[in-house]
Amino acid sequence: KNKNFDFLFGAPKRKETEILEQFHFDIAASIQAVVEEIIEKIVVYAVKITGNRKLVMAGGVSLNCVSNGKLLNKKIVDELWVQPCAGDGGGALGAALLASYSHFHEERIINKNDSQKGSYLGPSYSREEIENILKSFGFVYQNFETKEKLFDETANKLNEGKVIGVFQG
């Protein structure tokens, strides 16, 4: 255990079994405020040096929707896009694409109508294939004919504290 945390925050790190107190909420709020401030400064600087008000982000922090909303609401950027591989793998993906286009001179084809709908989400399966796998493992499952029924049942199960999974296609 790193004692720097204890020293910095004036209390030991909370154990999972301990109750959250105002102190913990205050730390979380403070960290969020600092993250927002840092992101805003970086983005303001990037816009200043590039003149471009369209922002693309990658990395785990790019999933901070509160910070992202503030960038848009404050009109710091006109457009914001967080790529689908937003975790640490996003940097590697971006580097690979950059090398592909700049070093290996691959043609970059942009489908202006795609709007990221073409992100690879994996193969699709028929209802029969899905049911065969579920049955082979003995999983309990339900089919829903309408989205409304799916949403209602999902909300009910979550409200009961249940864990659910949804697989479509």
Structural write-up:
This protein is mainly alpha-helical and 169 residues long. It is 50% helix and 5% strand. Helix 2 (22-50) packs across helix 3 (65-73). The model has no long low-confidence stretch (mean pLDDT 88).
List keywords for this structure.
two-stranded parallel sheet, 169 residues, 6 helices, extended, mainly alpha
Q: Order of strands in the sheet with the most strands?
A: 1-2
Measure the end-to-end span: 45 Å
Residue fraction in strands: under 5%
Briefly note the structural class of the backbone. mainly alpha
Calculate the mean pLDDT score and round it. Answer: 88
Overall form: extended
- What composes the largest sheet? 2 strands, parallel
Low-confidence stretches: none
**SSE pattern, N- to C-terminal:** HHEHEHHH
Give the beta-strand count.
2
Query: What does the radius of gyration come to?
Result: 22 Å
Helix percent reads 40-55%
Instruction: Give the number of helices.
Output: 6
